[in-house]
User: Which sequence fits this backbone?
């Protein structure tokens, strides 16, 4: 089968009729027609259509050695540095269609599944059957071009260091029963972005060390599995108008709470179960982090390019480029962009084959980038606010321009280098990027994309080898 079209994606998700709740009501009928999901599903469908574009198929796909079908490049296990470059080009082609705003486009979890499958032997100490399950499912996902949501996070009920949950009051999803044909999961997990609008839900161990085997599991199940519920937050896709909400009307991905109500996970869908050792090794002894971070930062580069483009368009439209403080602000974004690009490319040029036979990007340039971006992105959105100033408040709607007051808008909202309609359209884009509910969520998202920034800094501090550098200093002092 291989790659699918956008229509095939939408038809497949509509047929699932998963248990999705939003604003106190269960979603009924075709989810692709629901106001909260229609925009992002249409945008996601566009990604699949781009993947089918014959003019760029050498970037977007590769040929399966087993079936001869064209498979999406996001599933490609890199064996060479050229493969890493191809993956980057594919990721950024998709990202450009959303200005980098879709953090959970299919390539994110496709990469995650590929990374774990490539190192499946890390699970062999539990049961060789689980290794076979993982590799078989990876091949199935490639051939059927599955889309995935996922959950890594436990509910924030009590985050004190020594908190232990009461077994009689289950909150965090855990194994509550074992059967010959699978396991039973009960409880909740956060934070499934795109929950309910994908073929499958992948569940991986939450980050950190494990001390209880009931929480140590990894599996994938269809989104319409019995007992599986997606509880959505409020939608930020407030209006269908792409003029009024140029980003949220198209790319509002939705975040959901996952509730497992005695969900049966078939044995053939289990990748790892009840092994504290393997749960702790899954991220540390595989190339999961290098490969996934390579995808993340490839997208963040495109997102930063988009921010720079919007910021410069604001400057040009109202002609403020001659002010030095404006030049300084634009230069801040340029420096941030070039730093992210350099770190990304450094990870590729320094890439090495890991012990599983995968060409893994160098981890420390990527760790540096993922430590840097939570500081850059909030500053960049602040710069948009500072450049736009009151113009980000004076933003009439599409209907205002269709009213009899259009003549006033044309007179009083014109710009040095744009008419009133084009000026407002641009300023609404900057507002949706930096100030709306959608924009604020994007800022929070990039702050915590790969976890607590303080923990990330601690990981970098502990992991980065400085021995040679300190020895050099000591040698200098002793001469």
Assistant:
């Amino acid at each position: 089968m291989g790659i699918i079209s956008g229509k095939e994606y939408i038809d497949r998700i509509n047929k699932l009729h998963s248990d999705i709740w939003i604003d106190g009501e269960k979603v009924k009928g075709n989810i692709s027609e629901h106001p909260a999901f229609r925009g992002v599903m249409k945008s996601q469908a566009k990604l699949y259509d781009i993947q089918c574009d014959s003019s760029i198929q050498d970037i977007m796909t590769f040929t399966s050695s087993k079936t001869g079908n064209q498979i999406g490049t996001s599933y490609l296990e890199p064996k060479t540095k050229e493969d890493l470059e191809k993956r980057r080009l594919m990721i950024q082609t998709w990202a450009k269609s959303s200005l980098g705003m879709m953090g959970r486009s299919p390539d994110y979890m496709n990469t995650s599944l590929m990374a774990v499958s490539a190192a499946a032997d890390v699970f062999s100490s539990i049961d060789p059957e689980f290794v076979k399950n993982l590799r078989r499912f990876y091949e199935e996902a490639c051939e059927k071009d599955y889309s995935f949501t996922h959950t890594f996070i436990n509910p924030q009920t009590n985050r004190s260091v020594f908190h232990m949950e009461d077994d009689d009051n289950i909150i965090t999803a855990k194994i509550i029963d074992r059967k010959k044909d699978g396991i039973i999961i009960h409880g909740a997990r956060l934070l499934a972005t795109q929950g309910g609008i994908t073929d499958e839900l992948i569940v991986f161990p939450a980050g950190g060390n494990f001390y209880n085997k009931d929480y140590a599991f990894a599996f994938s199940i269809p989104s319409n599995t019995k007992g599986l519920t997606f509880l959505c937050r409020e939608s930020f896709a407030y209006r269908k108008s792409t003029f009024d909400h140029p980003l949220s009307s198209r790319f509002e991905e939705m975040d959901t709470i996952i509730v497992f109500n005695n969900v049966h996970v078939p044995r053939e869908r289990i990748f790892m179960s009840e092994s504290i050792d393997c749960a702790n090794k899954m991220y540390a002894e595989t190339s999961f982090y290098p490969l996934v971070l390579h995808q993340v930062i490839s997208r963040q580069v495109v997102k930063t390019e988009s921010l720079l483009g919007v910021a410069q368009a604001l400057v040009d439209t109202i002609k403020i480029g001659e002010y030095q403080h404006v030049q300084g602000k634009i230069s801040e974004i340029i420096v941030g962009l070039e730093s992210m690009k350099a770190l990304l490319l450094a990870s590729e040029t320094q890439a090495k084959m890991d012990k599983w036979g995968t060409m893994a990007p160098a981890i420390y340039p990527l760790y540096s980038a993922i430590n840097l971006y939570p500081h850059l992105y909030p500053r960049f959105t602040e710069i948009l606010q500072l450049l736009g100033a009151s113009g980000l408040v004076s933003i009439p709607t599409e209907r205002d321009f269709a009213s009899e007051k259009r003549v006033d808008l044309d007179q009083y909202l014109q710009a040095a280098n744009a008419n009133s309609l084009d000026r407002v359209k641009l300023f609404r884009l900057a507002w949706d990027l930096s100030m709306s509910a959608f924009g604020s969520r994007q800022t929070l998202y990039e702050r915590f994309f790969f976890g607590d920034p303080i923990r990330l800094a601690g990981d970098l501090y502990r992991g980065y080898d400085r021995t040679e550098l300190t020895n050099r200093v000591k040698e200098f002092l002793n001469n």
About this structure: The CA atoms of residues 320 and 475 lie 53 Å apart. The chain is about 50% helix and 15% strand. The chain has two domains: 6-282, 287-478.
